[in-house]
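Recall the central idea of this unit: under ordinary conditions, the amino acid sequence of a chain determines the structure it adopts. In this exercise we apply that idea directly, starting from the sequence alone.
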Amino acid sequence: MIVSVEQLYNQLSAPLSGIIWIASDEPLVTQELLDELRRAAKQQGYEDRQRFFSGPRFDWSEVLASANSLSLFSTLTFLDIQHQGSFDDAFKKAVTQLAEAQLQDTLIIIQTDKLDNKQLKSKWVKAIEEASTVCTVKPVYANQFSGWLNQRAQKCGLSLSPQAVEALAEKTEGNLLAAAQEVEKLALFHHGKTVEIEDVVYSVADSARYNVFNLIDRLLEGDAAHALKTLSGLKAEGNDTMYILWALTREIRTLIQVKKLQQAQQDNDSALMRLGVMKMRSRLVRNAAQRIPFNALVTTLELCEKVDTAAKSGQPDSANRLIFEICTALAGRPTALFAMA
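Accordingly, the structure predicted from this sequence is:
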């Protein structure tokens, strides 16, 4: 069946199984939905997670073999498939076969670009839809953007004045990811308060608070020495570990998406804009995505999860050590400990 984002969120507390296909061109909505879906799956016992990154000329036999072999075991297992590019015959055949198999004790998450109206009416999509859950993510239109900003702010413990909403909307030009980042930055310093237009203007102008973004840029440039000096300065000034982690996690996820776009030869400016990469930073991000191996990006993202766990369990030294490992790896100077992660 076809469901909305809200309907899928409401289903996360129920037993999960079968295929859940998320078709979207909204990176922020997709990533947050996937995070919640994976968290719910883990809580329900889906511990053995296998990742696949598919695209043109991808060999689906490995996915089919994994799905069939997994179904022979009693443990709950799930396949996490991120597909980049068009829906070729191999994709259609493989996903249809997985849907018709009705595998037991197996959850299959498939993330793809959006489905257009013609595709939604096609026989192959309808065949998959009958045996699966297909979530189509709709864009937030211009007349909905102010309302979306207010809802986002409320989730972060903020209240926005009408003038602040207008200023944020103008600054982010309807880009959900960029808007979410701005709201999260404001929440770090104005939690529980009403944000006025002056706060938005000051947030943009106050470069001292943006040192963490200088850290990110040094990492993307591969400038390990200056990056680690900036990291040390941030910690000395008392910057919160979770603030640094937020910036690192966001950038790593963006790099992974850009890496996949590069593999599909689709990393144009408009595609990067949809990921929240402003034009002035596009070359920096492209170069970093080309330089850093895909496996290293996946490993650093996994380390970010460990930082979150360490910080929340009262292990600041462990969290700081892991952040150091992440930074050195992104700057192209991975330590021996990173290789063992």
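Confidence is low (pLDDT under 50) at residues 206-210.
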